[in-house]
Amino acid sequence: MDEGEGGRKTLDFDEKNFLFEWLVENNKTLTRKNKELLVENLKFRSRVEELEKISFIDPTTGLYNRWYLQPRLEEEFSRARRREFPLSCLFIDLDDFKAVNDRHGHFIGDKVLRDMALLLRGHCRKEDVLVRFGGDEFVLLLSASGQRAAKAAAERIRAHAPAAVEPPMTLSVSIGVSTLRKEHVASYRDPWELVWTAEGAMHLARQKGPGRIHWLDCRGHREKADQGRQAAS
Predict the structure, then answer these.
(1) CATH at residue 88
(2) How far, in Å, CA of 74 to CA of 80, rounded?
(3) 179-196 burial string, b = 16+ CB within 10 Å, else e?
(4) Residues 76 and 128 in one domain
(5) Roughly what angle, to the nearest 10 degrees, separates helices 192-208 and 222-232?
(6) Domain of 24?
(7) Which of 122, 142, 171, 176 has the most crowded Cβ, counting Cβ within 10 A?
(8) How far apart, in Å, are the Cα atoms of 224 and each of 68, 182, 212?
(9) Do residue 40 and residue 117 come from a single domain?
(10) What are the residues whose beta carbons fall under 8 Å from the beta carbon of 129, sequence distance 6 or more?
């Protein structure tokens, strides 16, 4: 390094070259570390998404489970309030499913559940939400659907249920239907009311015998829904 004008030190060629090479290598090191951090971050995000997916998927049927229903209920109620459309819910229970497990074993019982899940998928629209609620119970949340559309969907499922599994096994379903009219959506604070009303309606359907459908208006029929659940307990 030499003394320049005014006593300032200037870098000679070798020093400049060394500094340039140091900056280049340092930049390469930082770039490599940034890439490594990016890769690790992507792997972490992928793992989180994988775990979230696992936590929301029922391993037997491949459907979403009841934990997935919570955020989707809130989303659908929010959309219904903004756009003022009705919501409906179907609570579907396989009749005498315990007898299937007792007679044929749990392996066949699981196959029946998968066959039923496949049938229900075929009756879902893209915007609907289908979950295995637990055991032999399924919940179908029908977006922007009123009483007539919900009852029609329940009738289609009931009609096709006997053919969902291979013979000689017969299968029937009890279905509870609940509807929340568009003018009442804004006044509801708990979206689960729609599901609990449909569950109560399902128990009332079972009291009539296997393969029945019962409908309840979500507003003003809490007492009847509770009576249905109490009768089943």
Answers:
(1) 3.30.70.270
(2) 10
(3) bbebeebeebeebebbbb
(4) yes
(5) 50
(6) 1-56
(7) 176
(8) 27, 21, 17
(9) no
(10) 64, 68, 69, 72, 73, 76, 139, 140, 141, 143
The pLDDT of residue 153:
97
pLDDT of residue 14: 62
Under 8 Å between Cβ of 185 and 195: no
Residue 217: count of CB within 10 angstroms of its CB: 16
Closest CA to 198 of 60, 109, 47, 73: 73
Kindly list the catalytic residues: 136
pLDDT at 21 over 50: yes
Q: Is the model's pLDDT at 154 over the cut of 70?
A: yes
Structure tokens at 128: 């609907």
Please give the residue that has the higher pLDDT: either 149 or 25: 149
What is the CB neighbour count within 10 angstroms for residue 154?
26
User: Among 22-36, 74-88, 126-140, 218-232, whose mean pLDDT is lowest?
Assistant: 218-232
